[in-house]
Design brief:
It is a single chain. The protein has 149 residues and is an alpha+beta fold. The chain has one domain: Immunoglobulin-like (Sandwich). The chain contains 1 helix and 8 strands.
């Protein structure tokens, strides 16, 4: 009977460790879909490891546009945030904001950007999000490029 309890306890601990690892890896989660008919999307994301990272960065690539979203991790969270961002096309800034207020941010109302897309361009996005008290709650950099086959 003790062997069974030990096995169950060890299995439970292993599952907890795996769940923690998945959450930790999910900290830099990127989604990419439907890029180009004749191309492949290459995306990389880099960010500081923030213990209080309250957002998930998701990027969607389409033939004619890119969509960047920053979604609160907590589905019940609704709050105001300030964002500093820089969106680049071939290293030229095409959209930027400094300390821009986003009110009532939630899962249904995430921080959202949409930009037109050129077929062979490389895009970059830097994002820093702070709460109203000036605490940094998200910091990431994203690069997206197409590689034609």
């Amino acid at each position: 009977m003790t062997k069974i309890l030990k096995t169950i306890l060890i299995s439970f601990i292993v599952l907890l460790i795996l769940a923690f690892a998945l959450v930790f890896i999910g900290n830099f989660y990127v989604t990419v879909s439907d890029v180009q008919e004749s191309g492949e999307q290459v995306a990389s994301i880099d960010g500081e490891l923030l213990e209080n990272d309250d957002f998930i960065a998701r990027t969607y690539g389409y033939e004619d546009r890119l969509v960047f979203t920053y979604i609160p991790r907590n589905p019940d969270m609704i709050a105001d945030y300030y964002a500093d961002y820089d969106i680049r096309e071939n290293n030229n800034t095409i959209a930027a904001g400094n300390n821009r207020l986003y009110e009532d941010v939630s899962v249904e109302n995430p921080i959202f950007f949409e930009v037109p897309r050129q077929e062979s361009a490389v895009y970059g996005m830097d994002m820093v999000i702070e709460d109203p008290d000036g605490n940094q709650v998200h910091n990431s950099s994203l690069t997206i490029e197409s590689q034609n086959e």
